[in-house]
Amino acid sequence: MFKHTIRYFLWCYVLLFLVGFRWFWLGGIQTWDRVDDIISNKYPQVKHISTEEMQALFSGGRRFQLFDIRAEEEFAVSHMTGAERAEDADEVKLPKEAFIIAYCSVGVRSAGFIHDLQRRGYQQVYNLKGSLFEWANKGYFMEQDGRRTSVAHPYSEEWGVLLDKKLHSYKRE
């Protein structure tokens, strides 16, 4: 009986140990390399545009359609100038030759959006590499209700580590 009790508690301890550290082992500490791996593994055909290229497009006056794939509450905090919020690629009613760029917080959700547009026959569609977090981290222009802002919704605690803490729209206690 005593032997079984010790074995039982030993297994419980091992289980608790594994559960306590699973967050780290399963990639809970996010990095930009991990984001790139997730996107390239799940959406290998998606084309990307860098934040520098995007800034040059804005500065150069190039016309394109910009989609923000984040949730309404994220969009309300801040978004890129001219961005239209969309939840699903089926909402896009543009000509197939339209030049489209999409972003989210880090690029995973928008990569899925771009992938879906590609499956629908769109050719000139790009995911913003690093998305809004990288954009904000570089100090590029964002807006809220038509006014400039420097804060962004950090999406979640797990992914918010990729956004400079001083740019978080709320302070963690």
User: So what's the CATH class of the largest domain?
Assistant: Alpha Beta
Which homologous superfamily in CATH is the superfamily of the largest domain?
Answer: Rhodanese-like domain
Order of strands side by side in the largest beta sheet?
1-5-4-2-3
Q: How far is the first residue's CA from the last residue's CA?
A: 47 Å
Discrete helix count? 7
What can be said about this structure in brief?
With 173 residues, this protein is of the alpha/beta class.
Task: Provide key terms for this protein.
single chain, 173 residues, alpha/beta, Oxidized Rhodanese, domain 1, 5-stranded parallel sheet, two-stranded antiparallel ribbon, 7 helices, 7 strands, 43% helix, 13% strand
Structure, explained:
This protein is α/β, with parallel strands linked by helices and 173 residues long. The chain folds into two domains: 1-29; 31-167, Oxidized Rhodanese, domain 1 (3-Layer(aba) Sandwich), CATH 3.40.250.10. Helix content is 43%, strand content 13%. The strands form two sheets. It has a five-stranded parallel β-sheet with strand order 1-5-4-2-3. A two-stranded antiparallel ribbon has the order 6-7. The N and C termini lie far apart (47 Å). Mean pLDDT is 88; it is low at 19-26.
Question: What secondary-structure arrangement, pairings included, does this model have?
Answer:
Elements: H1 2-25, H2 32-42, E1 48-49, H3 51-60, E2 65-68, H4 72-77, E3 84-85, E4 100-103, H5 108-119, E5 125-128, H6 131-137, E6 142-144, E7 147-149, H7 157-160
Parallel strand pairs: 1-5, 2-3, 2-4, 4-5
Antiparallel strand pairs: 6-7
